[in-house]
């Protein structure tokens, strides 16, 4: 019975050593990745970014403007761009009215 306990104890000791070695290797790998990615301060909180997507800009343009009804079928990209610009203007004016400082950009993907 003692031999079985000794064997199990040795097995657990080797397994614990193996796990400890894996943790140390993982820490080295994470440190190396942080160096190569130029992460200076890992404790720094992440930056939050709000993304807005207008689901049907053509329908909005047709609903809000008579000229867009004509242009939407012929120049859909331009109409989408104009809808996003108008939405951005309206959001910006609402946020300025509420005294909220923001940076707004339109990203094309």
Q: Summary?
A:
The chain is 68% helix and 0% strand.
SSE pattern: HHHH
**CA-based shape:** elongated
The portion of residues assigned to helices is 55-70%
Q: Give the low-confidence spans.
A: none
Helix-and-strand structural type: mainly alpha
| Biggest sheet record | none
What is the CA–CA distance across the termini? 69 Å
Explain this structure.
- The protein is an all-alpha fold and 109 residues long.
- Helix content is 68%, strand content 0%.
- It is built from four helices and no strands.
- α2 packs antiparallel against α3, α2 packs across α4 and α3 packs across α4.
- The protein is elongated, with a radius of gyration of 29 Å.
SSE blueprint:
Elements: H1 2-36, H2 57-64, H3 66-74, H4 76-97
Helix pairs in contact: 2-3, 2-4, 3-4
Essential attributes:
elongated; 109 residues
């Amino acid at each position: 019975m003692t031999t079985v306990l000794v064997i199990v104890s040795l097995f657990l000791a080797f397994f614990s050593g193996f796990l400890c070695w894996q943790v140390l290797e993982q820490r080295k790998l994470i440190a190396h990745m942080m160096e190569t990615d130029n992460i200076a301060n890992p404790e720094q909180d992440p930056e939050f970014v709000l993304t807005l997507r207008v689901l049907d800009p053509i329908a909005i343009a047709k609903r809000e403007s008579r000229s867009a009804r004509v242009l939407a079928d012929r120049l859909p990209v331009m109409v989408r761009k104009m809808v996003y610009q108008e939405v951005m203007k309206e959001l910006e004016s609402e946020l300025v009215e509420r005294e909220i400082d923001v940076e707004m950009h339109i990203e094309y993907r």
